[in-house]
What we know:
The protein is α/β, with parallel strands linked by helices. It has a single domain (2-195), classed as TIM Barrel, CATH 3.20.20.370. The protein has helices at residues 11-24, 34-39, 41-49, 69-87, 103-111, 132-140, 163-178, 186-195; strands at 2-8, 29-32, 53-56, 93-94, 115-116, 148-152. Strand 1 (2-8), helix 1 and strand 2 form a beta-alpha-beta unit.
Amino acid sequence: MALTFDDGPNPKATAAILDVLRREHAHATFFVVGEAAAASPELLRRISREGHALGNHTWDHAHLNVLSRSTIDDELARTDDAIFAATGARPRIARPPFGARSFVVLDELRRRGYTCVLWSVPLANDWEAVGAKTIAERVLSNVRDGSIVVLHDGDRGRPADRSATVEATPLVVEGLRARGLRLVTVPEMLAESDSR
């Protein structure tokens, strides 16, 4: 199953989540907002260097369904460029903010060579004022083999207090392993499904 984080990078929370993942010997996928990525290239380099995957979450967390094709393309291209500038690699996965997609959005993603990645576990609403145990319980009560989980390390590209998400991350990882689930990045999951 794949553990993913949206809306970062957020210097404090993303770094703390990376510390947890390193301690747990676990990998995740980070769908980053371009303007935050451009402001924190060192975090993108760390994400990549430590074996995690990066995905495009648009430049400023725009609701793509209300944008023109050219604006959608600009949102994706600017974020792609920020990721490339930091890491030397271009992501091949993207997650539209809010999961919002239309035929136009999906067509633009395909045209740019992206695989659109959503989630399969109900959102844990970790941006609400809830504790780490509640976040972990919301994830673990719905996860199964092949699941994609979303947590948040930022707030639409802005820094935010994500201490509960940081504290929930080891609980989620331990709970997943207790269920016999192996954590992989989204690109690893896609490669495994292609090989079947």
